[in-house]
Design goal:
Helix 1 crosses helix 2. It contains 6 helices and no strands. The chain is elongated, with a radius of gyration of 15 Å. The protein is mainly α and 93 residues long. The chain has one domain: Homeodomain-like (Arc Repressor Mutant, subunit A). The two termini are 28 Å apart.
Length: 93
């Protein structure tokens, strides 16, 4: 998840790799990471997006879609909510 946050991770796959039930895995993950699995994946994807915005000339929509966001407005809203500015504003800082 750290190295490829855009991959499709299933709860079943993650829980099985940890030899836990799905529900136990979610509880343990939240206790260890301090956030839910969904929040963790979202934060990793947005962090990767921020890195790409700073280091590449890829369009915002290309970055969003490559990282698994199916809707550009959702990407923009979540980016702004988590990082405090729009993707365009972040790139221009």
């Amino acid at each position: 998840m750290e190295h490829d946050p855009a991959s499709d991770f299933t709860l079943e796959m993650l829980a099985e790799s940890a030899a836990m039930s799905r529900y136990h895995f979610l509880r343990v993950f939240r206790d260890v990471a301090g956030m839910t699995l969904h929040q963790f994946i979202l934060h990793r994807r947005l962090h990767r997006a921020a890195t790409l915005l700073r280091r590449t000339d890829l369009s915002i929509s290309t970055i969003a879609f490559e990282l698994g966001f199916n809707d550009l407005s959702t990407f923009n809203n979540r980016f702004r909510r988590i990082l405090g500015c729009t993707p365009t504003g972040f790139r221009n800082c």
